[in-house]
Amino acid sequence: DMLEVMTAGLYRSTPHRARNTSGQPRLSFPFFFDPAWDARPTCVPLTPQLQLQALKARHADGAEGYRRWDGALLQRFRGTYGEHLVGKVAKVFPELAGQQLAVSSADSLGLA
């Protein structure tokens, strides 16, 4: 998700799916490389050619922008990676997100 934010939508996140339709057993080993919890993503410098590609992609998406499979508009995200992740997790595991927010608040106040 953060790569999408940092490249102005040029590189988009792949929907996460763990469906096996082959009829054969398989193993899946996902790899996630996450920024620091308090990192604020900023756009990386893009070459003029890549800037044009990103602009064309945004223009093709319409005025509102590209809306992902979960309804998120990552182009409008402003905040820390931790805020993004808690918001994303809260949609599926609201109790886990609440626990993490409590831990984060305690950490920021020096209570943990």
TrEMBL record:
Residues covered by the Isopenicillin N synthase-like Fe(2+) 2OG dioxygenase domain: 1-35
Leader peptide range in chain numbering: none
InterPro entries the record matches: IPNS-like_FE2OG_OXY, IPNS-like_sf
Keyword Oxidoreductase: yes
Superkingdom classification of source: Eukaryota
Entry keyword annotation includes Magnesium: no
Keywords, sorted A to Z: Dioxygenase, Oxidoreductase
GO molecular function annotations of the record: dioxygenase activity
Protein name as it appears in the record: Fe2OG dioxygenase domain-containing protein
